[in-house]
Amino acid sequence: MTEQEKQELKQEIIAQIQSESQDVTELARVQTLDGINTLPALRGTELVIVPVSLLGSPARTAATAAMAAKELAETAAATAGTAAENANEKAGLAQTAASQATEVLEAMERSHCRRIYRYFADDVFTETGLMRADGSVSTSSAYLHTVPMSVAGVERFMLHVKLVADTATSFFPIVVWLDDDNNVVGYVNCTAGEVDYELVPPLGATLAVFNALRTFVVQTDKIVCHADIVSATPFAHRIYLSPEGSDENDGLSKGNPVQTLRRANTLLAPDGELVMLAGDYYNLPLDLSNYGRLTGSGRVRIISCYRVTAATAMSGYTRVMSATIDNPPVRGTYLWQHDVADAATAIAPDEVHPVQEGATHRLPSTRIYPAASIAEIEESADVLKWYVSGTTLYFSIAAGTDLATHPVVIPRRTVAASEGGSIEVRNVRFLYSGLLLGGMHGMLENVSVGMTNAAGAVRYDGTTDFLMRRCEAFGCSNDGFNGHGTSAAPSDIVLEDCWAHDNSDDGESCHEHCAVTSRGGLYEYNGNGCTPASGGRASYYGVTARKNLPGHAWTGSTREGTGFSAQGAATSGAQTAMLCQGCHATGNSTGIRTTLTTGTIAVECTSVDNAADYGGNVVIVENVYSTLQRQKTRYAAHGADYDTLTGTWRMHKVGNDYLVTGLSAADMEVICAGVDINGAGSLFGALGSPYAGKTNRRIYTYTGIHSKFFPLIANSMANGNKSLEVFYSPYHASGLLCVSNLSAGFANCSALRVVKYLDVSRVTNYAGFGNAFLNCGNLEECYLKGFDAQKDIRTGHETDGTLDFSKSPKLTRESLVFIVENAGTAYEKNLRIPSGIYTAWNADEEASPTWQEFTEMCVSKKISIHLA
């Protein structure tokens, strides 16, 4: 068959198929592909058969693509998560870095910013009148103002001051801000009364003028100003200052010191050390609150005064000079001639003391006393004097001296501690200005303060945890060391080897809410030596007080002249109290005294060559004092001295023991004199006793009291009109020791109420011991230690130990328990008590111990109970 024929046959078959084929709509419709293997399909115009399996290929391709997309998505998500974590981590690091950067920045800012404290007084308020808001100045003498002060680098001032009265209705600027040309750029008006101000310099201000009320400046020590200073460089921890320095220096070494305190303060860190190189520093506005340490290197003197360096000799007088001054002194105060040693204070060879450190005179400058007239200056040949009229000062000076070298000085205040804090000051002398330590902590070492008009050369108000070692307080118009406190801000200081002298009142005096501990040291030539007063509490160890007298020119006749004196009741807080141990008082009007009924104790002290060695109700323990010379003692040969001034017996040492022996009934009448039935009085040191009263009679011993004493006591009390507490000693925790025997002891002593504490463990003769407390009908408390039987030293036979309280119905159970608990166990003993005590005790179901428990205690101590 030819090719043509083949083609024709093919077309014919196709035509036949087409003619017999069904329409698509005529085909059977199926719901699934189950059993179907192929499907017809057109590829162009050509009809083809399609395997069913090919229908899944797009889906599989799509699925494959989807899976690939999924994997890509998961990979992208993982990458994104990692990126997020990395981003978060980097954000955290960035935050941390930012915080650290902020901290560093703040630290840098802190290192460049500090608060500088300054004590404002007459050293800055030098101009009369006040500056008004327009910059003009009034001429009213009621006000003072400062010269224009730089505010460079100052963010704000905080000033405590007073300008007008509490009831004022008219107000003036407390500060006027100026520019470089002294033009006013702002001001802040005051408010009524004494106020704290916060003052921020306005834009354009470079200078400030502060106003104050004159009377406030003159009378107060509270004017303080705090300035927040911003520095261009970090602060140093040590800055060197010298009168020969330069403020162009960095102050970081001895070779490059600065010259002014203002410059030093702007360079020094708040807790830094200011090292002052040798020299005299005049009128330094020193506020200790600015420093952690203040150290003198070499001979450093801070001299605060107005100086009179030239004067005219008064016509018609041989001793009087006159000068016109801007700052007249306050009447009644002292002036000084600088660096002319006061001839009246030359130290005698027999008065040289280690704390004086080689000084030849107590006062390095000569005191000039106030006079009532010019004529008095002329008439005074033994001391220098001064008088003021308006702004004219009249005075005398030491012969052979000149004012150019040795000026007359008027003390002024330039030193303070305005904000408390911690400070250590070493090797500095403060002349003519007091040292205020209010609210401070820390120490002064080898610091000298003196020749000032103040309540105290060194003043510690609310000062705690403070040590003053080898310090000197001298030449003050009041006290040398002076302290006060409150319940909220008490004072607590320690003095070691200090020297207080030539002060008009006390060498050292603590007052309300103050506690002082003083070890060693010398207090001499004051009005009084050491004087805790009005609630002050002081303990003195090894302190010497000498020649404190009312007759010194600088003390006046009103001073008491005491070496050690506790005086004045407290208005609040703890009561005034004083302990002197191992102290020495000599050459005073009174060596050791008190004006109080209790709280003053002298232990192992020496009080000699005073007009009176002791005064008042001083508890005396093993002291040596001249008023108790043997010829003044009735029975000194027997080992006891009786001070008729204080009504106090003291023991002499007899052999190797301290005993009272050989006292007669007459002695006992002296001891018990003034003791009445109401309990006003005590025997054997009833310190703190409820029976102690206005007429205390005390006896102290160290080791024992002889048995011969007891019948004498009983004899003196037999008439029943004495009420005594016996044998209470605050110095011996175990009580007093009875030696030898008690004999009949206190038999028939109907007034005896208390015996505590008596140690009878050394009693060697129990003959009569059972009657020691017989017929003591009012005995309430009896605390005996060491009750036991012994062998009779006369016969060598064992004797029964017996305590007979059968006639003492008031005896407490506590006393009986104490006696049994503290009894010995060597021998059999007997205890006789009233049956009434047994009946009440046995019936008391809540008793502790119970009667049964008490009897068991007695059995364990070999004590038999007998009821009467």
Automatic annotation (TrEMBL):
Annotated SUPFAM superfamilies: Pectin lyase-like
Top-level division of the source organism's lineage: Bacteria
Q: Report what the protein is called.
A: Right-handed parallel beta-helix repeat-containing protein
Give the InterPro entries listed for this entry.
Pectin_lyas_fold (IPR012334), Pectin_lyase_fold/virulence (IPR011050)
Q: In the record, what lineage is assigned to the organism producing the protein?
A: Bacteria, Pseudomonadati, Bacteroidota, Bacteroidia, Bacteroidales
